[in-house]
Write a sequence for this structure.
């Protein structure tokens, strides 16, 4: 695991409840964005976050990211 130093406003850290919580939230947000962009799978996301695949949908939903990854062309055979 790699440690990074990121400068964020004090208010942001206070709003999320401290430095540890801010770091955890940033990690979750980054992983959720990678899932949204289809860079990583939901399985890989659950591994990176250390959560079960059963808990992942709720976590991703908090970032408005769906685990179900269907594009309009994926539904054509069902029309």
């Amino acid at each position: 695991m790699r440690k990074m130093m990121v400068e964020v406003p004090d208010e942001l850290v206070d709003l999320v409840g401290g430095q540890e919580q801010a770091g955890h939230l940033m990690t979750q947000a980054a992983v959720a964005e990678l899932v949204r962009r289809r860079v990583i799978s939901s399985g890989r996301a659950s591994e990176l976050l250390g959560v079960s695949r059963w808990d992942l949908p709720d976590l991703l939903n908090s970032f408005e990211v769906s685990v179900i990854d269907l594009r309009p062309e994926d539904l054509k055979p069902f029309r």
